[in-house]
Amino acid sequence: MASALVLAVPVAGCGVFAAPEQLRGNPADAEMLQQLTPGVSSRADVTAVLGSPSATSTFDQREWYYISATSHIRPGRVPAVDKQRVVVVRFDDRGIVEGIDQKGQDQMRDVAVVDRTTPVPGNDRSLLQALFGNIGRFGPTAAPETVPGANGGLGAPTR
């Protein structure tokens, strides 16, 4: 019995250190979506109920996307998305709601991000180039007062 109590105390304490749930984006919940009627609601109605969209269609302004996610950030760990949801509102040519679709995390594609960077000429120098690269690049320069015409064509400088 004592061993069960010893094991239960650390497990009970885990709730104290749990990361708070963070809501990100624009959550369009079911109650809000019930206020919109396809064939009747306009763009102004959608904006009044759901707010501004998170994104719009790239080439056509007929689709608005409301993207939301719930995540937990734990100390020393990478933030993880628990739930993700996208609501797609489609409009016809007159700006009236044509349809509303909801997509969950299971219907989304996983996009791999490339970590490569594009090399820029001149940034990759060896140690010898860094130490001796400027030798011979710059010659002696003449002071501006000894260059003919440097003072607006007046010749010798005035002091």
Structure explained in plain terms:
There is one protein chain. The protein has 159 residues and is an alpha+beta fold. It has a domain at 21-107: 2-Layer Sandwich (Beta-lactamase Inhibitory Protein, Chain:B, domain 1). It is built from four helices and five strands. The chain has helices spanning 2-13, 30-34, 43-50, 127-132, and strands at 21-25, 55-56, 63-72, 80-91, 97-104. Strands 1, 2, 3, 4 and 5 form a five-stranded antiparallel beta sheet that branches. The chain is elongated and about 80 Å long. The model has no long low-confidence stretch (mean pLDDT 76).
The CATH topology annotation of the domain at 21-107 reads as Beta-lactamase Inhibitory Protein, Chain:B, domain 1
Task: Report the total helices.
Answer: 4
Which CATH class of the domain at 21-107 is shown?
A: Alpha Beta
Uncertain runs are none
What is the total tally of β strands? 5
Strand content: 15-25%
Q: Order of helices and strands, N to C?
A: HEHHEEEEH
Class by SSE composition: alpha+beta
Q: Sketch the major β-sheet.
A: 5 strands, antiparallel
Task: Write down the Rg.
Answer: 32 Å
Q: What is the level-2 CATH architecture name of the domain at 21-107?
A: 2-Layer Sandwich
Q: Could you name the key traits of this structure?
A:
159 residues, alpha+beta, Beta-lactamase Inhibitory Protein, Chain:B, domain 1, 5 strands, elongated
Reconstruct the topology from this structure.
Layout: H1 2-13, E1 21-25, H2 30-34, H3 43-50, E2 55-56, E3 63-72, E4 80-91, E5 97-104, H4 127-132
Antiparallel strand pairs: 1-3, 2-3, 3-4, 4-5
